[in-house]
Design brief:
- The protein is of the alpha/beta class.
- The chain has a single domain, classed as Rossmann fold.
- It has twelve helices and eleven strands.
- A three-stranded parallel β-sheet has the order 3-5-9, with helices on both faces. Strands 1-2 form a two-stranded parallel ribbon.
Length: about 325
């Protein structure tokens, strides 16, 4: 019944989770929004296999709907660094996923989809659905703030790793959160359509070229930002190996900050993009924020966050 629903957001203190909580709290069909996050409750950290625990709890407590936040990294790139150009949710792509993060997301997706249709303790049925985010930008995006500070330290030159033809989607955090709100509601209203389905997150961010999106976002915050130099793959690969050697040699005395690794480098330089309208067709999704709004909101936050010597979001990430 509308007005009686209680929603639980696991990871609700995170970058995307915080925006999901904000939007859910504005919906009149929801009675209560609860947040479960290791940031808020440190004892949560002792549970090592989070998705399995959540599914177990759903079955034991007769919670009929679960929407899982995954990532395009669950699909690829694979260890052969094969590109995926403008695929959709039905595009076949095989091979072992390159990044450890992607491997864990793929494992979680598998158990979430296998749990769809399981019996609950009250005799009901569990319905599950998956949303795959990609590169999410917006207010409080730590990676974007780090890049902005680095670019300003380089006198406004935005240097980059990926070849200019590389394609990768970007989506504004507010629209990713809005898609979660709509998908969760539709999973309740039309479980026969959404249960067992996977959806990519998308909006009208205008370019598949991630480099150009980052340039527009940073230059909106600081007009002096310009496209810098391309860093060749071989040069970055050598830097990674050198950092590994230095880290090993100095480990007893000094631990340098984490550095880029080869799997992540391979992912950055590999085209991996999609093109879909499945969410619009299945549950009427339309971006809540236009590209112009998304760009301006992000730029204003970047300017404010970079105005202090050590922005809180960056300090939290580094610690």
């Amino acid at each position: 019944m509308d007005g009686d629903w209680v929603y639980l957001v696991t990871g609700g203190c995170g970058f995307v989770g915080e925006r999901i909580v904000e939007l859910l709290s504005q919906q009149d069909y929801i009675k209560e929004v609860r947040v479960f996050d290791s940031v808020a409750r440190k004892e949560v950290e002792k549970y090592s296999t989070g998705t399995e625990n959540v599914l177990r709890a759903c079955c034991a407590l007769s919670i009929p709907y679960l929407l899982y936040t995954s990532s395009i990294a669950a699909v690829g790139p694979n260890t052969s660094c094969e590109p995926l150009l403008r695929g959709d949710e039905d595009t076949e792509y095989s091979g072992e996923v390159e990044l450890p993060y992607g491997k864990t997301k793929a494992m979680a997706e598998k158990i979430v989809l296998e749990a769809n249709g399981k019996k609950l303790s009250n005799g009901g049925t569990l319905r599950t659905c998956i949303l795959r985010a990609n590169t999410v930008y917006g207010e409080k995006a730590a990676f974007l703030l780090e890049l902005f500070l680095l670019t300003r330290a380089s006198h406004g030159a935005l240097n980059y790793l990926e070849p200019e033809h590389t394609e990768r989607n970007h989506t504004y955090v507010g629209n990713v959160a809005w898609m979660h709100v709509l998908a969760a509601r539709s999973l309740q209203l039309e479980p026969e359509l959404l249960a067992g389905q996977v959806y990519y997150c998308y909006d009208d961010t205008p370019s598949r070229k991630g480099l150009l999106v980052r340039l527009q976002l940073l230059s909106s915050a600081d007009p002096s930002v310009r496209l810098g130099s391309h860093i060749p793959y071989w040069k970055m690969w050598l830097m990674i190996q050198l950092h590994r050697v230095i880290r090993a040699m100095l480990a007893p005395f000094w631990k340098p900050q984490p550095f880029l690794n080869v799997p992540l480098l391979n992912t950055i330089v590999t085209s991996f993009s999609f093109e879909t309208d499945k969410a619009a067709r299945h549950f009427g999704y339309k971006p809540l924020f236009t590209w112009e709004e998304s760009r301006l909101r992000t730029a204003e936050w970047l300017k404010a966050a970079a105005g202090s010597p050590a922005p809180p979001q960056l300090r939290e990430k580094m610690n």
